[in-house]
Structures are given as C-alpha cells and as structure tokens.
Design a protein that fits this description.
It is found in: Cytoplasm. The chain is α+β, with helices and mostly antiparallel strands. It has 10 helices and 15 strands. The strands form 6 sheets. The chain has a 4-stranded mixed β-sheet with strand order 10-11-15-14.
Length: 387
Amino acid sequence: MSQREWIEKDFYKELGVSSSASQDEIKKAYRKLARDLHPDANPGDTQAEERFKAVSEAHAVLSDPAKRKEYDETRKLFAGGYPRTGGGFTPGPGGGFSSEFNLGDIFGGAQAGDGGLGDLLGGLFNRGGTRTAGGRPRRGADVETETTLGFREAAQGVTVPLRMTSPSPCTTCHGSGAKPGTSPRVCPICNGAGVISRNQGAFGFSEPCDECRGSGSIIDDPCVDCTGSGIQNRTRTITVRIPPGVGDGQRIRLAGQGEAGLRGAPSGDLFVTVHVNQDKVFGRNGDDLTLVLPVSYAELVLGTTVSVPTLEGRVGVKVPPGTADGRILRVRGRGVPKRGGGAGDLLVTVKVAVPQKLDEAATESLQNYAQAEQASGFDPRAGWAGA
C-alpha cells in the first residue's frame, strides 16, 4: 500500500465504528463483518470478497495499539493539508493528496531512532513489506483468526483445519516476484539500500530510490501471476494443533503463517483465538475438572461407590458413610492435562436428589425411619440459630 493510500483510507469507516471506539468494540465489529463477508459464506461474490479484504486490512491496523496510534497520529497530522517539497501545504482534490506530495522529501532526512516524524512515518509505511534503509525486507503483517472447540476437545487437545483467505507467497515465483527461471537484480542506483541520499546546502536528505521504488532490487521480467509483488491473495487450509488444556479466550501463535512479505520477505505470524463451549457434565477450575454427582440420602448415610465419567473413561468414586450434602470428593490426576506433564484433579461435589413422589410402601418406611431417628435423639437443627 502506498503512503497516500494508507492515509486516505478510513479504517474506522470500513468497520463501522467511531475513531474513539474501544478495542472490544473494534473486535466485535470485525467479527460480525468477517462472519457475514467471509468468502465461504458468499461463494462467487467478488464484491463481498473485496469488502472482506478491506475489513481484514482495517482490523489488522486498528486491533494493534501501536499501529492504531501511528495511523491516528498520521491522519491527524495531515487532516488540514499536505506538505510539498516547496514548503507550505497543498491539499489535493477533495482534501486528498496533491500529485506532488512525497513524504520522503519531507521526512527522509530524519535519523532512525530519533523519535521524531521520521520514525513515526517510517514505521507506519514500512509495514507493507518494503525495505528499510539497510535494504532488508520487512516481514509480512500478523494475521488474527478464531476457532471454537468443544469442552473436551480443548481439555484433551485436538487438530483442527482453519480455512483462511489472506496474502500468501506466490506459488509461481515462490515469493521472489520474478518470472520462474529469472531472479531480481540489485538496484544499481542505490546498491540495494532502497534509499538514496541528497545534499542540499548544509542539510542531507534521504528518500526512497526512484529506480527500484525503495525495494532495493529490480525485476526485469516480473512474474505474470503476481505482477512482480511476490504475493497473491488465496484461500488456504492450515492444520493447527491445539495443545491439551487450552482455555477459553487463549491465543495460539503460529510463526510464519501470517501475511507474506513482499518479494520473499519473511511472513508474519498467525494468532488463533480459541473459544471453548460449555459442557453438560464437566466444569473447569484451572487444571481441575469439576462435576456435580447426584446421590440419594441413603447413599450419603450408608456410604457407597459410584461410577463417574472422566476425560478418559469412567472411575469409581467412594462416598464414605455419613458424607454431608455438598461435600467435595477429590480424584487425583483425573483433571485437565498440564503443560509440564501430569494432570489436575477431578473434583466431585455430591448433591442429594430428593424424590418428587413416593409410593405407599416407601412413604410408610420413610415415616418409620423418621420416628426412629427422632427416638434416637438426632436433631438436624441442634445448635442452629440459637436453638
């Protein structure tokens, strides 16, 4: 993307949010648009595909606090007009850039790391895959995506395919930008640096090389499939291994699986945010699994052994005689697998299930028991509320 295109694009408008929107509002807006516009949901709809690319581009900038800050500051800097080499400001048609505007003429002389506008604009525009002053290509942008797993899949680990549409290395030229059988050559004007220096009196200025457009290399015979960029937008399927024990909202980083860099530069990274569905039986507390075990009153009083589920089959849990309702029984090593090996525990909470209806025989037996209990001196409310 050129400098002019970057500043003139309204990423907030693409996502339908205000410039003061929070990161959560930006994320929610992107998720909704990405879901509605995804190529898989709109097969053959080129307009939806273009909107999907624009929305993804906007999210890549606004979801990164550092990129968003640079974008906001740069747009604010040029909101009222655009500097030209002769001094003063020259707004273009409709408030856009004039054809004479060149950021390199104004800020090219700034030294790297001086903290001024040279750093601001250099860091902003070099993310697109161009070369730095030293001729080293910039890596591609990072990409974010999401996936939703079942509770047990997340606890035990699973391999999932992710279908993505994003800039990727051209499969014809393998990212070089040159036609197969040929190679880019070093720019003879800047000697591969991508910038040239000019002296004007007591001042020195650096600006992108016009011959190679700042890339440091020249392609005499460009690849016909990517027109020399080394990048193609294509849909691909990536197999992602989700490790055991991943939690809801956790991000997984896949190095080198993001957007491709220009002309063979390293690719960015892919960040996958995992969402985990709730389970009907299990809950989770850190590395421990939790569940509620329904039991009868007689089982609590007399004791019993009950078969309960785990992530790897069933185990028997012993309920000691006289167990109180709500007591938590611990089964060691039957919880969520830990990163360093081993697993958490299974925490079983016993809860009395009260019958809603009894037949005549059961009712008579329970009444006899209640009388015997009272005769033995047992008082369930002894010492309760001052009694």
